[in-house]
Amino acid sequence: MCKNPDLLAMDCTVQREALDAGAEPAESALFEAHDTWFRRRGLCAMIDTAHECVAAAYSERLAVLKALRANATPWQPK
Description:
By secondary structure, the protein is mainly alpha-helical. It has one domain. It has helices at 5-21, 34-42, 50-70.
């Protein structure tokens, strides 16, 4: 991934968006915690279309993080 400038840029963007989004909500059926997403993204290395898989994983994560930031409300644990 680090040798691919597009994926490296996506990785940097995900990291920046994660910081901008602030504290993430608890993992649920609607939200995948970052460490869980990271492990799932890592599974892309096991398939022939790894580049496309990683790019899709980053695109999905960016959409989630941008939605969190755009709809930020104080999160209250139950």
